[in-house]
């Protein structure tokens, strides 16, 4: 009998262990020793709330699924009907192919063929690798193998997890601005976090704080990385870092998830473009025929 999420690919290095699924090349779980570092689900369980999913050729939402590209009006399938949006791209429910696997690394590939509203062909290659000291590194390479210029964005949807609920933890996010959205999750403006409850740059308790926003203008280290830190009361912490190709990190406190998952972990979503980028064009990547783009992030 096939599991709901297809074949399971387990990798290990030192105390770290991860499982990647055939369905969407998703990150089903990440451990260090016996501690879960991400919210997990069973192999025969539906990944609620986009748990660990791969989001491309766009992350987050496209307003009413409508956008214009090079003078052509397009309509994507509406995949979030309650908000009348197309959400989280086209590949998270597709089967991906195992290209290679060793003890500490798995490589998954997928050819995205033309679909309603997205008449392009992309070759996607996603590498998950573990290191005993550095934890998990994820690298996505996308190449336009079609003949038409293609709009592109990439995101991922892990939920960081500690042995505590969100309200007992502290979050540090190196973003000096956040996007304000309407009740459908579509950005309407951007504001500085200075002086607001959403200034998480120095670390802040999440008790009673509801967040579902994209943070931008990220502070970075000398290597161009921006790092989010999630810390529990006992001092245990888990970090998610992004390279310089990610200008935005979405933070989601999980308030709309089922009671089993609600505020049990925090969604920290690397995004190469903000929500509704297919409409706004903000930070949207334009891939010409035979052009490729690469993006890297990780958890430790």
TrEMBL record:
Transmembrane segments: none annotated. PANTHER family: ALDOSE-1-EPIMERASE, GALACTOSE MUTAROTASE. It comes from the Bacteria. It comes from Bailinhaonella thermotolerans. It holds the Pfam family Aldose_epim. One of its GO terms (molecular function) is carbohydrate binding. This is Aldose epimerase. One of its GO terms (biological process) is glucose metabolic process.
């Amino acid at each position: 009998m096939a599991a709901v999420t297809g074949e399971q690919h387990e990798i290990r290095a030192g105390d770290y262990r991860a499982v990647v699924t055939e369905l969407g090349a998703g990150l089903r779980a990440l451990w260090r020793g016996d501690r879960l570092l991400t919210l997990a689900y069973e192999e025969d369980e539906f990944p609620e709330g986009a748990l660990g999913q791969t989001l491309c050729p766009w992350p987050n939402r496209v307003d009413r699924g409508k956008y214009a590209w090079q003078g052509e009006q397009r309509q994507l399938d509406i995949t979030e009907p309650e908000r009348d949006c197309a959400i989280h791209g086209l590949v998270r429910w597709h089967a991906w192919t195992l290209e290679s696997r060793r003890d500490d690394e798995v490589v998954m590939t997928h050819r995205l063929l033309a679909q309603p509203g997205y008449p392009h062909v992309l070759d996607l290659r996603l590498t998950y690798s573990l290191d005993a000291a550095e934890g998990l590194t994820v690298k996505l390479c996308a190449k336009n193998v079609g003949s038409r210029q293609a709009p592109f964005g990439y995101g991922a949807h892990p939920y960081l997890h500690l042995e505590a609920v969100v309200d007992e933890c502290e979050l540090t996010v190196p973003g000096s601005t956040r996007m304000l959205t309407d009740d459908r999750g579509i950005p309407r403006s951007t504001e500085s976090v200075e002086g607001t409850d959403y200034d998480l740059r120095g670390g802040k308790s999440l008790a009673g704080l509801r967040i579902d926003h994209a943070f931008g203008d990220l502070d970075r280290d000398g290597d161009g990385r921006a790092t989010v830190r999630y810390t529990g009361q006992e001092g245990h912490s888990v970090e998610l870092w992004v390279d310089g190709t990610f200008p935005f990190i979405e933070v989601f406190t999980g308030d709309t998830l089922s009671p089993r998952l609600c505020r049990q972990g925090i969604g920290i979503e690397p995004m190469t473009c903000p929500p509704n980028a297919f409409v706004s064009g903000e930070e949207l990547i334009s891939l010409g025929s035979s052009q490729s783009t690469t993006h890297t992030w990780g958890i430790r």
